Amino acid sequence: MTRFIHDQFAKDYLEQLLSPYGEVQAPRRVSVEMRQIDVWFSPNSQQSTAASESLGLLGIFAANPSIFEPFRNPATSNQICDCLLKLLEIRGELQREANRNNTNIQESVLPQLWILTPTESDAILFGFGAIIDDGWLPGVYLMPEYLRTGIVVIHQLPRTPETLWLRILGKGNVQKQAIDEIIALSADNPLRYNAIKLLYNLRKNLQINDIPEEEEDRELIMRLAPLYEQDREQAIQQGIQQGERRIVENLLRIRFGSLDEQLAAIIPSILALPPEEFTAMLLQLSREELLARFGESL
């Protein structure tokens, strides 16, 4: 089922985003009945501020030990109960370790559970006592304090840069809008690169199924297709440019024995010419003539 493909994408995506800021285990096994936590995150204390600045709301969640349980479709009451059971089993592990060491369990090591769901019914939110807190953005519902659990209804999050890295895990138009926002980021943004790479993998995995199960999966494949082609063409062009630069550098070394600072400085100006023109010049002109010809544009 394509749901499992989306689940794996969500795990890979969260692991890729969070790994610079702490230790990620995706999945993490829990001893009882070999349960698995989708994503376990333990932050580096030095990186907490950097995470919130880079990842917005997701980075704020990651300021403390966290369990992330993403769902492609709305989480059912049984699925939420299963997530809570994992959280309590982890708490039990930590308590047993503290008992063995004859110490008190530290509040700072207790994880917070974040259930990421595209939508959720009012009945389920009410049933778990999950309510909006004034200190959080719309879409973040907190259960009673000692449960240390939040339900993040992705489609209710405001469309702001702060929520972008969570909205990519939504569905339909919410996910499409987030993809558009990621594309609009600066090309040298490392988060953009990682997200697009994972989206490529998602597209490839969805296409392995001849007929995706959901119409929105077919739409997602179509939405990612031009992005793939655009980035492929850009990669090809970058490869051509890098190849031309290596040719110029090698010709300069062959002609003049080395590539010093003066010669290196005129390479961008040389590359502005078509290859057939700069090749002839590099073979014919002297060092002084090249510096005079291309040094004027520096």
Topology:
Elements: H1 2-18, E1 22-25, E2 28-30, E3 35-37, E4 39-43, H2 48-55, H3 57-61, E5 66-70, H4 77-100, E6 112-117, H5 122-127, E7 131-132, E8 140-142, E9 149-153, H6 164-167, H7 172-183, H8 190-208, H9 215-256, H10 261-265, H11 267-271, H12 275-284, H13 287-294
At a glance:
55% of the residues lie in helices and 12% in strands. With 298 residues, the chain is of the alpha+beta class.
Question: What brief labels describe this structure?
Answer:
13 helices, 9 strands, 298 residues, elongated
How would you explain this protein's 3D organization?
The chain is an alpha+beta fold and about 300 residues long. It has 2 domains: about 1-185, no CATH class; about 240-295, no CATH class. The chain is built from 13 helices and 9 strands. It has helices at about 1-20, 50-55, 55-60, 75-100, 120-125, 165, 170-185, 190-210, 215-255, 260-265, 265-270, 275-285, 285-295; strands at about 20-25, 30, 35, 40-45, 65-70, 110-115, 130, 140, 150-155. The longest helix is centred in the C-terminal third of the chain and has 42 residues, at about 215-255. The model has no long low-confidence stretch (mean pLDDT about 80).
Overall geometric form: elongated
Strand order of the largest sheet: 1-4-5-6-9-8-7
User: Helical segment tally?
Assistant: 13
Rg value: 26 Å
Average pLDDT reading: 82
Secondary-structure element order, as H and E? Answer: HEEEEHHEHEHEEEHHHHHHHH
Q: Give the tally of structural domains.
A: 2
Spans of at least 5 consecutive residues whose pLDDT stays below 50 are none
Describe the largest sheet.
7 strands, mixed
